[in-house]
Design brief:
The protein has 100 residues and is mainly α. Helix content is 40%, strand content 8%. Strands 1-2 form a two-stranded antiparallel ribbon. The longest helix has 18 residues.
């Protein structure tokens, strides 16, 4: 079953906000900007919207842990489920980003 909120070529991940150039996690295709720029565009402030979030600079996943995670979530271990396929793709992107 296809997700109606994602395009065929869309991949969830970290993108740069076109307004402020800060990184943000885009998990749905329609998310175009970071939360701060979105709220600013709507004329709201974080406090007004009662939204709490923390910006996190993620540390790279250690190679040993990354290998373990890949083994645990691989689609072959979960009847080829969509969730395991997406998780494995994301982990493989993390591995590629650490070495490149």
């Amino acid at each position: 079953m296809t997700n109606p909120f994602s395009g065929a070529d869309f991949k969830p991940g970290t993108y740069r906000c076109p307004s402020c150039n800060e990184p943000f996690f885009k998990d749905l295709i329609w998310k175009a900007t970071c939360l701060e720029c979105y709220l600013d565009k709507k004329g709201k402030r974080r406090a007004e919207a009662e939204i709490r979030y923390v910006k996190v600079a993620a540390e790279p996943i250690e190679p040993t842990m990354l290998r373990r995670l890949l083994q645990c979530c691989h689609p072959d271990r979960h009847d080829g489920s969509e969730a395991s396929r997406l998780a494995t793709q994301w982990l493989l992107q993390q591995r590629g980003g650490q070495h490149g």
